[in-house]
Amino acid sequence: MHASTQQGGGTGHLVNIDAVMQQVAEHKGCGTTGGSGKASCGSSAGQNDLPPEIWEKVKNHPCYSEEAHHHYARMHVAVAPACNIQCNYCNRKYDCANESRPGVVSERLTPEQAARKVLAVASTIPQMTVLGIAGPGDPLANPAKTFKTFELIAQTAPDIKLCLSTNGLALPDYVDEIARYNIDHVTITINMVDPEIGAKIYPWVFWEHKRYTGVEAARLLTERQLRGLEMLTERGILCKVNSVMIPGVNDQHLVEVNRAVKSRGAFLHNIMPLISAPEHGTVFGLTGQRGPTAQELKALQDACEGEMNMMRHCRQCRADAVGLLGEDRSAEFTTEKIMEMEVNYDLEGRKAYQALVEEERVAKVAAKVEELAGLDGADADISLLVAVATKGSGLINEHFGHAKEFQVYELSAKGAKFVGHRRVDLYCQGGYGDEDSLATVIRAINDCHAVFVAKIGGCPKADLTAAGIEPVEQYAHEFIEKSAIAWFKNYLAKVASGAVTHAPRGDAAIRQGALIVAA
User: Which one of 27, 38, 215, 326 is at 20 to 30 Å from 115 when CA atoms are compared?
Assistant: First the structure.
């Protein structure tokens, strides 16, 4: 079936996706006013904010829907080793089992191995709904391997969504192939639309048997990226744009990038922090180029959000990642292990399991809506950040000492809004707390008013309290957003009674305030 014509949500009639996506493009990436009466789209959009056909594409895609990432898993298969550009933040030769970074893999697969791995993972993790090819090089610099893999998956696991991530250099030449294989989610990494800035990021690109360098290389790259984006959105293919925030190089310029990709119909913009460490062997790592702080990243995302909705829940996955965003189960599915597995791809069983996931998801949303009712008339000038340590399912279900990251929410009279995550060192080491690691955790969440946890020990609780961060345990194993809103209402009541004086915290003093919820 042509990619621009698909079955509409169980009704049996055909819908014209091209027309819907043209509507999205006309709204500069936002195709509906939704139930709230104002335009809403992107990763935070709900069922009432999008045309039904678009909602069907994103509702269980953990990268395109912030809500879905609590419930659904994805996997990447590393079938594309070659690349046609060089980035100063990339080194594909580096690998470490504990390293989570784009371009990193432990095994490279043939299309046939990849197809078997997908079936093995999908049989073991029934909430795995998305298969992506993101490297470790560029999928479109390896077109035969990339499209052969997609062909095999479409034949053997037709319920799995297909995704492609590319630097965009070769993209205009493969839009027809992408549409033919029903790959309806494409991510393009666009770090600049100004070749002068691009020359600081890309040493060279290789195109039509010729190597280009400097401004000429960057100009060629940006022209083809933007042309490819336009071609995809014209075909009704959802596009997410990734941009790496590099302080002092393109950080201010990314506001212009945001406008450029929105005007060409991009569905979502994901601004990611530069990962820069000398041991990775990248140019930026070896030259001391720093990455942004969490506060700098959020400030830029906030500045761009007025133009377009942002993806805030990205984990900058490895090219062989498996599992929920924020977890990596790839070690369970090495080639050796999957060859020994007895794979039984039970399509009906997967559908039944996902139906249960949807029931839990609906309950979570209903609980949030019910709690929101009490925020009517709340002080509109007070907002706080909240960070949540969670194992998934939208629950506060992680021990403080076991958290590898904290999810951060901003609480205000509008409710709870997910705004990012903070990676931290594991505090708990074999049952004992590492004080140096605890200091790292406190620094990571020092702009927060509270940290919500499933459980926490006495010593870290005391240290957090001394740092002005309230540890909150009473909502253990309850829904994050419902609990955060309930806590916030109680906080506002204390402010109104004079029991608490609201003040910004830490780095957030330049804005308003912050709260963290650890699950």
Answer: 326
Residue 306 neighbours by CB under 8 Å, 6+ apart: none
Q: What is the CATH number of the domain that holds 379?
A: 3.30.420.130
416: DSSP letter: E
Rounded CA separation 379/381 (Å): 6
Count the helices and strands in the chain (H runs, E runs). Answer: 15, 19
Range among 39-48, 234-243, 309-318 with highest mean pLDDT value: 234-243
Which tokens in the block code for residue 376? 């009517």
Give the residue among 189, 280, 279 at the shortest CA–CA distance from 226.
189
Listing DSSP states for 74-121 in one string gives EEE---B---SEE-TT--TT---TT---TT--S----HHHHHHHHHHH
Claim to verify: residue 73 and residue 213 sit in the same structural domain: yes
Residue 427, SS3 per DSSP: coil
**Alpha-carbon distance 271 to 262, whole Å?**
13
Q: Is residue 171 within 8 Å of residue 188, measured between CB atoms? A: yes
Do both 164 and 237 map to the same domain? yes
Query: Residue 143: which domain range?
Result: 17-339
Cβ proximity of 69 and 264 under 8 Å: no
Locate 349 and state its tokens: 């069983």
Instruction: Inform me whether the pLDDT recorded for 212 exceeds 90.
Output: yes
Domain-located, residue 362: no
**Percent residues over pLDDT 90 in the chain:** 37
pLDDT digit string, tens, across residues 153-177: 999 999 999 999 999 999 999 999 9
Q: Does residue 365 or residue 202 have the better pLDDT?
A: 202
Same domain? For 427 and 318 the reply is: no
| CATH number for the domain harbouring residue 154 | 3.20.20.70
pLDDT at residue 326, rounded to an integer: 67
How many other C-beta atoms lie within 10 A of the C-beta of residue 14?
A: 11
Q: Which of 416, 408, 415, 451 is nearest to 294 (CA)?
A: 408
For the chain, the straight-line distance linking the first and the last C-alpha, in angstroms and rounded, comes to 43
Quote the pLDDT of residue 44. Answer: 60
Which residue in this structure is represented by tokens 């470790």?
136
Does 319 score more than 80 pLDDT?
no
Enumerate the H helices of 264-326 as residue ranges.
283-286, 294-305
3-state SS, 470-499, equals EEECCCCCCEHHHHHHHHHHHHHHHHHHCC
